[in-house]
Amino acid sequence: xxxxxxxVVARPWITARVxxxxxxxxxxELPVRCRPGEGVALGLAxxxxxxxxxxxxxxxxxxxxxxxxxxxxxxxxxxTGLDVAEGWDDTRWDVLEAGRLxxxxxxxxxxxxxDRFDLFDGxxxxxxEPRLAEECTGSSGTGRLMMxxxxxxxxxxxxxxxxxxxxxxxTEDAVLGLLTWLFSGPAGTAANRRRSDGKNSxxxxxxxxxxxxxxxxxxxxxxxxxxxxxxxxxTWPTNPGRDEAxxxxxxxxxxxLPAAPAGPVSLLTARASHALLLKPDADGGHVTDxxxxxxxxxxxxxxxxxxxxxxxxxxxxxxxxxxVAWRDLDALLLKTVPGKTPRHRxxxxxxxxxxxxxxxxxxxxRAYGLHQERRDPETAWFTAVTPPVLxxxxxxxxxxxxxxxVARSRAEGVAxxxxxxxxxxxxxxxxxxxxxxxxxxxxxxxxxxAEAEFWKAVVPDGAGERPQPGFQKVSTRxxxxxxEAAALTPRGMQAVEQARAAMxxxxxxxxxxxxxxxxxxxxxx
Length: 525
Fold this sequence. Notes:
By secondary structure, the chain is of the alpha+beta class. Among the domains are: 310-400, no CATH class; 405-504, no CATH class. Helices cover 35% and strands 14% of the residues. The chain is built from 17 helices and 14 strands. The protein has a three-stranded antiparallel sheet with strand order 2-1-3. Strands 4-9-8 form a three-stranded antiparallel sheet. The protein has a three-stranded antiparallel sheet with strand order 7-13-14. Strand 11 and strand 12 (343-344) form a beta hairpin. Helix 14 packs antiparallel against helix 15.
């Protein structure tokens, strides 16, 4: 009987958008099934070979897309030579000038590891642990694999599927579910797996990017995005050992000995804290069951992900769906944002400053936020794309970076004043000093509307000027809208007007000393 197979190199499972700005000769390169501006399903070989014709990958959720980008960037490092430190900047510039990945090198690399990219291979299934079927006391079902399906602790409006396993999952979706688990799976209980001491354990720790927000430089094409996403050698981990992706290793990993990353490829692909195994149906078109459990008996060595904002305390910046992305922009453009807890920009952005400024000025940032608990609950996943801002990196445009920082700080100050005024108005209107629902409804609206003012203050106009942002106008408009109903009552009108007047009152400067004191005189007795 033929064993089911799903070759992720050749089988289409990645949806990508074709660029709309292609030159006629580039349009002629497109396969028959591809049209500018449309999405198309591709395998790994096609994604890498045609990356210069593609705008970006288009996964169904930010968690799988953020994970897929890391895998694609690791593959890009291998096929371009950007996994070698010597002459790294020159190599990167040569690839950027070529505008595409070398198809011969893509074919050679994928062919060299051809037996490692089959999702259902009996000995080395891609990114999976084949020993789980024997080492686990039971399976996990397909509902456990797909985090967007009901399983375990979920929202009450998600009905649980009937049956222990859940329904079959199309293999194209299951690959993305696999990636999501490996990079951002939750901590907690999973399938029981036998340890080296003969005992069973079902406890897992969270995936390496769970609950975090990741930032990637975004170019004009997917090829540029992948090349620019490779972290530079000065940020690579320097631990001993081989810098290998899981599909490159000769042997299966020893669960007792989690290895520290030894370079960019292992950093991006070999940091999973979970182990999975997928069970296919007869023809490999669907996954009918899964095993999901822990990958290591001991803790993984620490390593800094190159796409997250690091803090001196508290770990990387966590994702918050209520926080608009541009509020962190100064932490991306400045090397370090000082404060009570200093923030440091993602390591992957360090080398962008070594590009010509006119090149960096055309680059955007793409954010993937995974608002989650370390354990099961998923709150929200979100994405954001900035205008071209990387020309404002501190090393390239010190004034531009300062303008970003000042504008962001002003927006935060106005937001704090709005919240204070709303609490005062609510207290005067209701007498309640503990809860103010107005703040929860007003601040998301303020931050959404303040974004346009922020970009006005950051991006110079045609005359090279940066106008003052109208954050206070936005704040006043939001305040009036939220308190409108209360202001129709006599009690509410007084409370609202007093709070509004206090919000608009210019801040007091420091009191001047008397002339006598400033001249060293003494206060009269």
